[in-house]
Amino acid sequence: MSALELRYRRLLAWYPTGHRAEHEEEMLDVLLSAARPGQTRPSPADAADLLLGAVRIRLRRAAGDATGSPWPGALAVAGFVSLLMLVAEGLRFALNVPETVMMIDGRTDGGIGPMLPLYFGTAPYWVAWAGIAVLAWCGARRYATAAACTVTAAQVVLAVWGTNFPEAPYAYLGSSVAGIPLPLALLATASLVASPGPRHGARLLGRARVAGFAAMAGVLTALSSQPLFSLLFQGHLGDVSAHDIDRLYAFSEKWNYAQFVAVLVIAVLVCGALAKSRQGRRASALLAGAGLPLLIRVGLVHMGAEGDLLDLSQLLLGCLAGFAATMLCVRLAELPLKNRAPGRPGKA
């Protein structure tokens, strides 16, 4: 046995026993046939791909993929919706760029250069998720998964740093990705790693519901964009005038209320659209993990709360509470269906 074959077998040992018994020799033949002359070690890309494949298969089996469990499909659907929301949030960031530039230029004397990292430092993050969405949609799942894991790991590090060291230089950039984007990123990454993927989730949803979810994401993007706020408030783009502070305050209150109602209505519509199947109901529970913190945030803004709305621990607690509460409702709703299952005494 060559050194290369031995090292490949060590990597393949991470796969479940049943999978190795059925596929190990075939996988080994493919790997060895693609090896370079004189190669003695697996390339980093091959090693990472094998390990990621082993983790994915073990997670799928743990979730019950081989026993007809609805969770893999639910995770695929939730991953698609999360990826769609991340792309929509990136679009909102892009729409706000011209307004932000005009605002900075009108309020600073030294030019916008020193302010660029503060206001636009998260631009690479949104570009990265747009690229991941394109890769996932085009079927390049291996590259999309690797990119998502890398971006999300960096996001977690930045979030912990930004929320624990708020006085550090540019800590705001870290804390800004610790909000609603964090659970969305975790859900999208988990979907790529441990489910058939967001692209499969889109197929499960069907064209009509995919179009509906895209339209709802567009509504949220518009209602959180600065250009629309400026147009409705003052009739033109540009830095919002604060000369009439009472009018600005009253309009902001109405704007925040509209955001709160929109998020609440969209949450109800999403749950209604997904409630017809077991995997859809579980996808709702997964999405509630990100939806409840969003609803809390816009609710606090509507009520005029001051200071940091949600820190990292509150965000995680909100995610867990949203998932647990929705899953409890799912279990209660499915209980009559289980009681009517064939084979139970007294039931047809």
Radius of gyration: 24 Å
For the report, how would you describe the main beta sheet?
A: none
Mean pLDDT: 81
Helical element count? 15
Number of DSSP strand runs: 0
Tell me briefly what this model is:
The protein is mainly alpha-helical. 76% of the residues lie in helices and 0% in strands.
Give a description of the structure.
The protein is mostly helical and 348 residues long. Helix 14 (278-302) packs antiparallel against helix 15. It has helices at 3-12, 17-33, 44-62, 71-107, 116-120, 123-137, 141-164, 171-176, 181-194, 198-205, 207-223, 226-234, 245-274, 278-302, 312-339. It contains 15 helices and no strands. Helix content is 76%, strand content 0%.
Task: State the main characteristics.
348 residues, mainly alpha, disordered C terminus
Topology at a glance:
Blueprint (H helix, E strand, L loop, with lengths): L2 H10 L4 H17 L10 H19 L8 H37 L8 H5 L2 H15 L3 H24 L6 H6 L4 H14 L3 H8 L1 H17 L2 H9 L10 H30 L3 H25 L9 H28 L9
Helix pairs in contact: 1-2, 4-6, 4-9, 4-10, 4-11, 4-14, 6-7, 7-9, 9-14, 11-13, 13-14, 14-15
